[in-house]
Design goal:
Helix content is about 40%, strand content about 10%. With about 220 residues, the chain is mainly α. It has a single domain, classed as Rossmann fold. A three-stranded parallel sheet has the order 1-2-3, with helices on one face. A two-stranded parallel sheet has the order 4-5.
Length: about 220
């Protein structure tokens, strides 16, 4: 934990002190552990924005019936935490988030989908996304957040804003489920190496059929 704190430039604090005097709470933990955060969100003032970066990976989190039955992950998270939640940064692999942020206006700047029902909270989180080096793209309400979940064209495919808007529109519930299972099976067969996350982005693009979207109709 100390090494991670030093690497990321943050200060670790005890769990029971989290959410005191904060404007935004960003949660980034395995989705199966999200219910354990309820004591923290229950003591948050009403005006504090909560943003979440988690994704449901059954091999890690176990099966969650509501999500397996089609409930958008963001909506499930809201029900566990008892308050509105904005979904952001979940559709990036960690190396993209760490290394590929660029200043506003940079040609080809990558984009991040942001979903949530509270418009003011979403606007604030979109500003934070911009601050982290990515163009924010409004992905709709909490109910629409399934369009940025694993297996969809918008998930971990490293797109610019115009491409991402098209990718969100291409999402299909059933196809996303099939793609997610196929991607997980392939990914779990790989050895971790320096190209792992680049290969994962390429795999996500290929399974979503984004060749023309990414490279243009002439390719």
């Amino acid at each position: 934990m100390t090494a991670l704190a030093e690497q990321s430039g943050v200060t670790p604090v005890p769990l029971d002190s989290v959410s005191r005097a904060v404007d935004v709470l960003i949660t980034s933990i395995p989705l199966g552990r999200v219910p354990a955060l309820r004591p923290i969100t229950d003591r948050l003032p009403a005006g504090v924005v909560v943003a979440d970066t988690s994704n449901h990976l059954p091999q890690r989190d176990g099966h969650i019936k509501d999500i397996d039955d089609g409930m958008p992950q963001g909506l499930w998270i809201e029900r566990q935490l008892g308050r509105p939640v904005i979904r952001a940064w979940n559709a990036l692999v960690q190396t993209t988030l760490a290394d590929k942020g660029r200043p506003p206006g940079t040609p080809g700047r990558l984009a991040v989908p942001v979903a949530g029902t509270d418009l003011a909270a979403k606007e604030l989180v979109m500003t934070l996304v911009d601050d982290t080096g990515f163009d924010p793209v409004d992905a709709g309400t909490a109910e629409d957040g399934w369009r940025m979940q694993p297996g969809t064209p918008a998930y971990c495919t490293d797109l610019n804003a115009a491409q991402l808007q098209k990718a969100l529109a291409l999402a299909d519930h059933e196809i996303a489920r099939i793609r997610r299972e196929a991607i997980l099976a392939i990914m779990n067969s790989w050895e971790r190496n320096d190209s792992f996350f680049d290969d994962l982005v390429a795999l996500n693009r290929a399974t979503a059929g984004l060749h023309r979207l990414v490279r243009g109709p002439e390719s």
